[in-house]
From TrEMBL:
Protein name per Swiss-Prot or TrEMBL: Light-independent protochlorophyllide reductase subunit N
Coiled coil region boundaries: none
EC annotation from Swiss-Prot or TrEMBL: 1.3.7.7
InterPro entries for the chain: LIPOR_BchN/ChlN, Nase/OxRdtase_comp1, Protochl_reductN
Organism: Marichromatium purpuratum 984
Length: 425
């Protein structure tokens, strides 16, 4: 059974992928709570974890909270580890406390962590028990964001995957477009207007702004991924009958146009009509990119594996801004979801799947690229060696999809180089 139902883009030979395994350095899936809680406005994320989990979440979200946060950590204490019965009672007490204080919460996510998995605390059962107890006002859903063998963007995949069984059924005679992946509201609104102008619809987004208003899914659903790291959710939607549209991801002008054209093809709208409707936004985006092309063309960039956005971003930087790709490494490469992007990479580029930290750092030191995209933990040591870096997590926190954000996306890569040049003056 094939997940991809639309014709492949391009048709070029795909680059060879080198697999590496070894020491890893990535954030865990708890980081996803930072952007998920901002998007889903009636949800609360309760991490069942340790003080380490609480610290990670606070430091990842610390600079981004403008209102009372809708996340917290129920910290497992030593006596919880001694007896699971007590642990469940304690969890029920914490949940009661949260729900009493926050009557606006309609969905409570119980988020598993390394400690809760190690002691085998069954959050699925806890979610069932609490769902029954609060059935009149709150749905309780569990997922795991543990850092064992995962990377930080998989937290969103696990969260959205947990929502799929709860999506209402789309009536069999209806069809709809489901855009998959967290988008800031402003970007969602831009895409909604473009789809409306193209007469594509109805359009739904997963995650929605309100978890109490989940989008429908069924055999009439076409899924268009806005983020490349949502393979498990895409497969769960496919099991519910949805068809997946194959397209590059909506980063930069080229990616966004191709992405819209994949949806247009499914609705019988011509590529020429997409070009016509998108023309003003495309012109604006191209004008915005001109300045950054001057700064970035010819500069050498190395992606270390972290966010799973590496391949689409490398494609954008090479094809629209003239950057030279030294290496593009990603923690996992889902061939089906990444094929249209791989086909757009230049011939001969080194593409790596997985992490072997020391070997990869040796290659960065040998190549001395102008810019290295990496996780937070690696940025400071590389900067100390005189290498310019970009934090990959910032690329997930920032609005970077679509035409109107193309220049902002380019700016994120230009900024460290401009700052580096100033420091050298
Ligand atoms: S979930 Fe695991 S990796 Fe993430 S902060 Fe907690 S203990 Fe650390």
């Amino acid at each position: 059974m094939s997940l991809v139902t639309e014709p492949k883009q391009g048709g070029c030979a795909l680059p060879e992928i080198t697999r590496e395994r070894g020491q890893r350095q990535v954030f865990c899936g708890l980081a996803g709570i930072v952007w998920l809680h901002r998007k889903i406005q009636d949800a609360f994320f309760l991490v069942v974890g340790s003080r380490t989990c609480a610290h990670l979440l606070q430091s990842a979200a610390g600079v981004m909270i403008f209102a009372e946060p809708r996340f917290a950590t129920a910290i497992l204490q030593e006596r919880d580890l001694a007896g699971l019965a007590d642990c469940n009672q304690e969890l029920d007490r914490v949940v009661a406390d949260v729900l009493e204080r926050r009557p606006d919460i309609k969905t409570l996510f119980l988020v598993g962590s390394c400690p809760s998995e190690v002691i085998k605390l069954d959050l699925g059962k806890a979610a069932e028990r609490l769902s029954e107890r609060y059935s009149d006002r709150v749905q309780v859903i569990d997922y795991s964001a543990s850092g064992l063998e995962t990377t930080f963007t998989q937290g969103e995949d696990a969260c959205l995957g947990a929502l799929v069984p709860r999506l209402p059924a789309l009536p069999s005679i209806e069809r709809s477009l489901l855009v998959l992946g967290t988008l800031p509201d402003v970007v969602e609104d831009q895409f909604r207007r473009l789809f409306e102008a193209l007469e594509i619809g109805p359009v739904h987004f997963l995650p929605p702004r309100q978890a109490s208003e989940l989008p429908p899914v069924g055999p009439g659903t076409s899924v268009l991924l806005a983020q490349p790291f949502l393979g498990e959710t895409a497969r769960a939607l496919h099991k519910r009958g949805a068809a997946l549209l194959s397209a590059p991801y909506p980063f930069g002008v080229e990616g966004t146009l191709a992405w819209l054209k994949a949806a247009a093809a499914a609705w019988g709208v011509t590529p020429e009509r997409v070009d016509e409707v998108a023309a003003p936004a495309v012109a604006r985006a191209r004008r915005g990119l001109e300045h950054y092309r001057e700064l970035l063309a010819g500069k050498r960039i190395h992606f270390l594996p972290d966010s799973q956005l590496e391949i689409p971003l490398a494609r954008f930087l090479q094809r629209e801004l003239g950057m030279e790709l030294v290496e593009v490494a990603s923690p996992f490469i889902d061939r089906q979801l990444m094929e249209p992007e791989l086909a757009l990479l230049p011939e001969g580029v080194r593409v790596t799947e997985g992490q072997d930290l020391e070997t990869q750092l040796d290659r960065v030191r040998a190549a001395r690229p102008d810019l290295t995209v990496c996780g937070l933990g690696l940025a400071n040591p590389l900067e100390a060696e005189g290498l310019r870096t970009k934090w990959s997590i910032e690329l997930v926190f920032s609005p970077v999809h679509g035409f109107d954000q193309a220049a902002d996306l380019a700016e994120l890569f230009a900024r460290p180089l401009t700052r580096g040049a100033l420091l050298q003056v």
